[in-house]
Amino acid sequence: MLVGLDVGTPPQLFTVVFDTGSNYLVLPSIQCGKPCENQKKFNHIASSTFLSLNETRNLSFITGGGVQPVIEGAFDFTANISTETVTIGNLQASEVQTWLMTNVSWGFYENPYDGIIGLGPAAINGTLMAGLIRKGLPSVFGFYLTPNTIGGAELTIGGIDETKLEAPLSYVSVPSTDKHWIIESTMISVDGTTLPTLNTTLPLIIDTGTPGMMFPNETAKAIYSLISSEIQPLDSLGSWGISCDKIETLTKDLELHFTTETGDPLSLIIPHNEINVGIFPSNPTFCQTYINSYEELCVIGTVALKHYYTVWDMNPENPRIGFSLNVSHSI
């Protein structure tokens, strides 16, 4: 989901991804040359509210804005750390920690957006939400994500848009806010069928900054075995797929199962029409499917979230994520 964000004084407008998988604002700097030529660059010299923290860091993102598998070094960057005033709509936060990228690796080159604003689960000093909460804004935000064909995606900061809900919200507790929005699934099934590998508790990162899904290889293999034996690894990096002339034969829905904070069961369904994420670049006769293998993390991205209205409650006494089918869902 791309949104316009004003940074600095006077404001400089950037298109950013609101990312629950990170914490801080990340933007290209005017000090970043050719690697950042496709993005707008923040001119810190022109801003009266810019404050350098005199610190430089190197960081890596695991995923980018596309559905490619995890490739080491694809999303590495070097940034100078500073603070800035950030405005979205009629909301303004000061001293937001801003990572100004001075060099980036190849994965960033073709991004259709300028930067990333983190909405991680902890309102730690320097985050956008922490700055807004200090001004009295409720510590909650709601996402209405939609397929591209529908459009009209929406982020509500400090509240919930009840008009986008098709059913009452069901909340799942977040055990820890140390790093990610993580909730524990109790089982994964396909059209009601599961396997021992999938009938177990899994901590899932819920990430608006990731388009697809990632699971360890054995988990991905088990899920795909229940959908079709013809879905196979496409490379050594974690991509899976099937011959494009068979993609329309895949009609089974993926289900993620949870227990709500009231002890009730909750199932999030990812419909079968989401499985095709496009032609595999190096072999156009094959279509890539929605789960990539990655041993270290389980991540659920917008391929699932665009069918649900999600509420992200940062209350430190009871962090949680709420789910309701949204009014544009295709389930």
UniProtKB/TrEMBL annotation:
Disulfide bonds join 32-36. SUPFAM superfamilies: Acid proteases. It comes from the Eukaryota. The active site is at residues 19, 207. Residues 1-324 form the Peptidase A1 domain. CDD domains: pepsin_like (cd05471). GO terms for molecular function: aspartic-type endopeptidase activity. Gene3D superfamilies: Acid Proteases (2.40.70.10). Keywords: Aspartyl protease, Disulfide bond, Hydrolase, Protease. GO terms for biological process: proteolysis. Belongs to the peptidase A1 family. This is Peptidase A1 domain-containing protein. It comes from Clathrus columnatus. The lineage of its organism: Eukaryota, Fungi, Dikarya, Basidiomycota, Agaricomycotina.
